[in-house]
């Protein structure tokens, strides 16, 4: 059953000039699910996410958020419902962490509704959740790559939208922080019934947290469904050209892949 916070892509084609990058993709990211998009470098994951957030136009097809056509609705109404964390975002020089995170609240302001106590609380909560409250008054550009990445995530959390699209949010983060972040995103998806879509490169981290995994190659979706159906030896071979064993981890019982080169090393 469709929900107001589901985001659906129907037959989307996205091109840069004459170069077609996304070839007729259809998918629905459901409220309450952490949907993970994986695929080889250059296959069109970022372009698809940008199309979903209407940062790039569609050549063909439609993106619907509940009953709204994302590419036709007003910018403000979409910004209240959908947040995108792109790859490698850049902030103006001198901006403090609190100022950056506060930008997440701007779509919620109007002439009649100025900055309120509720906005300050949302900013404080987002900084706590992303574990950056201790940097609140420091310039963003003075922080490490991983600390900065967590500040951008706090900005997206402060925006507090039903749909959250995050393009490789775990870049620069150490493994423990990656796990903490995905746990947080999963809890937001499940607890607040948000549609959270994340592009990830680490397949084992993706498999550990995805409610739903989508594999893309050459601008098309090759597999879409629960991890147990999509994260298979055959799909890793077809989509990534990766020869790997897929097995259950003994402690967590989660599916993990072990590339063949590692298996050979272990056997030596
Ligand atoms: N602004 C642009 N203009 C022209 N071509 C672009 C532009 N952005 C991306 N491309 C091309 O579109 C293709 C898909 O890029 P995209 O960034 O969507 O892939 P991706 O799957 O996110 O890759 P990665 O995993 O490396 O981040 C690539 O061939 C890239 O060169």
Descriptive report:
This protein has 268 residues and is an alpha/beta fold. The chain folds into two domains: 1-81 and 162-228, Rossmann fold, CATH 3.40.50.300; 90-160, no CATH class. It is 34% helix and 26% strand. The protein has helices at residues 45-52, 75-79, 97-103, 117-129, 145-159, 175-191, 203-209, 227-230, 233-240, 260-267, and strands spanning 7-16, 19-29, 34-38, 60-65, 68-69, 82-85, 163-167, 195-199, 212-217, 220-225, 244-248, 255-259. The strands form three sheets. Strands 6-7-8-3-9-10 form a six-stranded mixed sheet, sandwiched between helices. The protein has a four-stranded antiparallel sheet with strand order 2-1-4-5, with helices on one face. β11 and β12 (255-259) form a beta hairpin. The model has no long low-confidence stretch (mean pLDDT 91). InterPro entries: AAA+_ATPase, ABC_transporter-like_ATP-bd, P-loop_NTPase, Siderophore_ABC-ATPase. Keywords: ATP-binding, Cell membrane, Ion transport, Iron, Iron transport, Membrane, Nucleotide-binding, Transport. Residues 7-243 form the ABC transporter domain.
Keywords:
Rossmann fold; binds adenosine-5'-triphosphate; 268 residues; globular; alpha/beta
**Class of secondary structure makeup:** alpha/beta
- At the fourth CATH level, what is the homologous superfamily of the largest domain? P-loop containing nucleotide triphosphate hydrolases
How many DSSP helices? 10
Report the uncertain regions: none
CATH top level class name of the largest domain: Alpha Beta
Strand content: 25-35%
